[in-house]
Please model this.
Amino acid sequence: MDLPSRSELSFRHYLAGTTALTGILMLLGVYTAAAGAGLTCAQRWPLCDGAVFGLFPADWMSFIEWFHRLVAMVTGFVILGATGHAWRAGLSRRVRGALTVATVLLPAQIVLGALTVTEYEWVILTAHFSTATVIYAGVALATGWTFAGSVTAGAARRATLAAAALLPAFLVLSPRLVFVYGATAQVALYAVGLAALAALCWAAVWSREAGSEPRMTLATSLAAVVLGGLLVLGRQVFGASAQLVMTGGTLLAFYLSFAAAHTRPPATGRSRELSGAERGSRGDD
Model:
């Protein structure tokens, strides 16, 4: 196995940091909405309601919305920089493709972010968070692919186990199941959910690259899709039906993750030869 160059290692860490930054931005968005700060800044975009012609916030609630916009701007440039480097460095098509999808969605996300301030309708809010989830998944997948050449099937299994360990906490934090669905509970739910989603994305990528059983890749991929849908569902107005879907979906994602983590690795060429020899010796007997 060729050792990665220093620039490759640096870019891997840059992408890992980009994944974390994108997740932090989403948590800020969840907190902004839960705290009721989304309609502050006098519903002006991109300006706010404070000094210097409304460029800065006037109070704490406005600061929450203003800071969310600031981090969103920084994150957008960081993702754009990652995509530009991936194309200039001639990285794999999968890395470039995942980052390109994330970058292409950025303008739509900016427009949707503005509309959440000026319009604040359910469809817009759902589209805004759905797009954010796809961008996050794209950056996470790109990160996983940059590490794929140096990881083993064991790393894929550990990532799957990490996701399986996080999902019970995700279930407990689900809207109004145990806790009041306030700002703290919502941020905790999404911190756990986004961490599990990244782990499942990496497990799906690494299991395929390491030559694990295709069932493991399929199970982790399905679990990631289910969890992504639950993250979007969690931003809706909740009733009994939504709680049942949230509970059932989380249990399904847990089952898929747990089953994938306990999938037997494929037999190596050496073990296949030995098993064939054993069968031959038994036939001779």
User: Anything to note?
Assistant: The radius of gyration is 22 Å. DSSP finds ten helices and no strands in the chain. The CA atoms of residues 123 and 272 lie 55 Å apart.
